[in-house]
Write a structure and sequence with these properties.
Helix content is 70%, strand content 0%. It has two domains: 48 residues, no CATH class; 56 residues. The N and C termini lie far apart (44 Å). With 148 residues, the protein is mostly helical. It has seven helices and no strands.
Length: 148
């Protein structure tokens, strides 16, 4: 292979990867613009207005928290059906998700708590709740570091 042939092949590879990354960016851009929009419409809106403050006052994963989620079930069922960034959206749970869904899920989780340690604890607790592997838990924790 000549130097020119190598350069040509490398530039071709760079262009192909760039094109695929731009597809990913486009998908993330669409998700960013549509995230949780269903919460602003019936049947979710009124129930989320009622239960969001109660959930905020409860400890994540506690019996009270889980009871509140049960009461919020009609809104959650609709929300999960409309939003693929929730493991509950997929018949196979988290194993039915793609990387784009996972990125949106992690960004969603990262907004839930005031302190980074709380977010890390949520990732650890959610491993049991959603049944993901130690490897995925570490990937989520590693990715959390770049979210600021």
């Amino acid at each position: 292979m000549t130097k020119d042939e190598y350069k040509k092949e490398t530039w071709k590879h760079i262009a192909e990867v760039r094109g695929l990354l731009l597809i990913v960016i486009g998908k993330l851009f669409k998700k960013a613009n549509r995230h949780d929009a269903s919460k602003l419409q019936p049947p979710e809106f009124d129930l989320f207005v009622k239960y969001t403050p109660k959930l905020a006052k409860s400890i994540y994963g506690s019996k009270e928290y889980m009871r509140l989620l049960k009461e919020l079930r009609p809104a959650l069922d609709h929300h999960y059906a409309k939003n693929a960034h929730h493991p509950n959206h997929h018949a196979k749970g988290i194993r039915g998700m793609n990387l784009i869904d996972l990125i949106e899920m992690l960004c969603d989780w990262a907004t839930k708590k005031d302190k980074k340690e709380d977010i890390k604890q949520s990732i650890i607790l959610n491993q049991k709740r959603f049944g993901y592997s130690d490897d995925l838990k570490l990937i989520l924790l590693n990715t959390l570091r770049i979210l600021g």
